Amino acid sequence: MSPQYRHGHRVKSSLPLSVPSFPAQAALSITQARRLHLAAQGLLQQPRARARREDVVAAITRMRLLQIDSIHVVARSPYLVLYSRLGEYKPQWLDDALEAGRLAECWAHEACFVPAADVSLHHAWRRQRAMHWAYKHAARMHAEHREGMDTLLARIRDGGAARAADFESEQRSAGGWWSWKPEKRWLEAWFALGELMVTRRERFQRVYDLAERVLAKLDPPIDATSTSLDHASLREHFVLDSVRALGIAQARWIADYHRLKPAVTDRELAPLVARGELLKVEVEGWTTPAYVLRDHADLLAQAAQGKLRATRTVLLSPFDPVVWDRARALALFGFEYTIECYVPESKRRYGYYVLPILHRGQLVGRLDAKAHRSEGVFEIKSLFLEPEVEPSERLLDDLAQAIAATARWHETPQVRLGRCGARGVSAALRARWREAGASA
Fold first, then answer.
1. Residues 358 and 304 reside in one and the same domain
2. Which Pfam family is one of those matched by this entry (predicted)?
3. Which of 119, 129, 203, 238 yields a CA-CA distance of 20 to 30 A from 24?
């Protein structure tokens, strides 16, 4: 019989049924590892069907979480992350899923949407993450503003769910959480401390209610047994969940996904490999091992056999899980990326809200975009391809279509292209948009 791999070591093919197998090879190529990662994230191939309402929850379940950011230069990040995976869909579906209790908001990687089925685990873990900046800030705020915060909480308890806008205040913060008025900061503090949750959003504004009332409407209902798990069991769960979401991961990448502390090490993962929960694999060019979840053994086998085809070309949010870890994006894609909206303007290289360009399994460039909704214009202030990327006809076709599709979804169908860092690309894209009727 031909040999197989188990836990990264070559063995005979007569494996226990509990441990999956995959075809033998010395190592995955970087291209195979990259495609495995994109497959796990739902970004490898074009959507096969028109998006449905239930696909929103399914996509977040696949990623395990969806980071929230409110910058509105183009679509807010959570909506754009979903668009990258689902294609054209109705952003309202995300809001509806939150209000229906299919999703909830909590601190995970940062503030995130998570599936209702995982809320009990995140709530249990909240008690283990007292060192998180949001929790520490909230605890300090309550100590300093106990009377005001307690009064606000009592108002919501008696009067029902409320937005920050429902509270009038002449006092403004001189700093802290984005110079919010005190009531907004107190609402966020109670959210971080777990007393309040977000029951719905109105025009992306959070509507807060008592956690007990939000938890009562979750679908599926909260699993009380998960809240009693000890620290080690919860950490193991989130370690495995991170590897599931990433598809393939070095140990040093794992902690960042759910903001675990301390960092995850190969030594910590060794028992999970021994139990068959994780498969240990090599990737060409990497000096450290990589790990794949047992449930992804079939996907790993397809990657190893070169059967994973990358067909998706799409723009990514700056807060997409694929690029939020700079070291991981560099190791997997050779792509150096910084979220420059938090960088002083004089120090930016590419622009304020720069969207990475994913093309058939590679990050080939980036563009600085702004949606002018009142004018119906999708402005590309600048566009850059990576130095080693050749602007082939296929790349130009796919990129023109991806930009035009994103612009239509934003309801800004006219595309306006500014500075372009690659020779000939600007004229080629404009010609394609003129043919499609998308050029401004």
1. no
2. AlkZ-like
3. 238
